[in-house]
Amino acid sequence: MSDNQKYTLFGYWRSSASWRIRWALELKGLSYEYVPVNLVQSEQKSLEHLARNPLGKVPVLKTPEGDLLTQSLSILEYLEEVHPPAILYPVSPLERARCRALCEVINADTAPFQTPFVQKRHSSDAAEQLNWAQEWIRKGFGAFDKLLPNRDGPYSFGERPTMADLFLVPQIYNAVRYQIPVAIEYPALWNIYEIALKTEACIKASPEEQSDAQQP
């Protein structure tokens, strides 16, 4: 893919959903420009960004043809379909279904409850916000841990990372921020996390490697 065919990813360095897309782009060797959207400074509420995504969220992926894609799961499946080889799902239909289920444990039942908007709607007290986030992370990780297949490799479904890992690893990063001792409570999940963070693609996609890292 030449420079004039690059994707453009609008995201935020500490957004777990943005990390999923960055990691997938790296795994597939796709060229992309990363454009920060500062969520803390409410840049997602600007008219410019609302034109990209009416929900005012990240990530948004702009294709080389100029189309705008939203929602991390749909973006990932688009990349999987458009850019072979297919590497983000297991081979068998049964394992693909199980992989999708693990993605949804994080995507639908864990991550949404940690957004600042939801936390503030729950309580204005910082300690209660922390307890709330920890409760939902533990519920999600408990389910993920029980649904995790008997692994024959370092990742959720074998020797290479799949969509399940792209959802899990950024969520573990968040869990550490929310003071959950993941290594002690969920050692199998922590093992996946440690292995992933030693790989080039995951490192390049990680929050601290982004141009907007450490911004408020």
Features:
single chain, 216 residues, alpha+beta, Glutaredoxin, Glutathione S-transferase Yfyf (Class Pi), Chain A, domain 2, four-stranded mixed beta sheet, 10 helices, 50% helix
Describe this structure in words.
A four-stranded mixed β-sheet has the order 2-1-3-4, with helices on one face. Strand 1, helix 1 and strand 2 form a beta-alpha-beta unit. The model has no long low-confidence stretch (mean pLDDT 94). The protein is 50% helix and 7% strand. It is of the alpha+beta class and 216 residues long. The protein folds into two domains: 79 residues, Glutaredoxin, CATH 3.40.30; 109 residues, Glutathione S-transferase Yfyf (Class Pi), Chain A, domain 2 (Up-down Bundle), CATH 1.20.1050. Helix 7 crosses helix 9. The chain has ten helices and four strands; from the N terminus they run E-H-E-H-E-E-H-H-H-H-H-H-H-H. The radius of gyration is 17 Å and the shape is globular.
CATH topology of the largest domain: the name is: Glutathione S-transferase Yfyf (Class Pi), Chain A, domain 2
Task: Calculate the mean pLDDT score and round it.
Answer: 94
Distance between the termini: 34 Å
Number of helices, counting only DSSP H or I runs of 4 residues or more: 10
Structural class based on helices, strands and sheet pairing: alpha+beta
Strand order of the largest sheet: 2-1-3-4
Task: Give a quick summary of the entry.
With 216 residues, the protein is an alpha+beta fold.
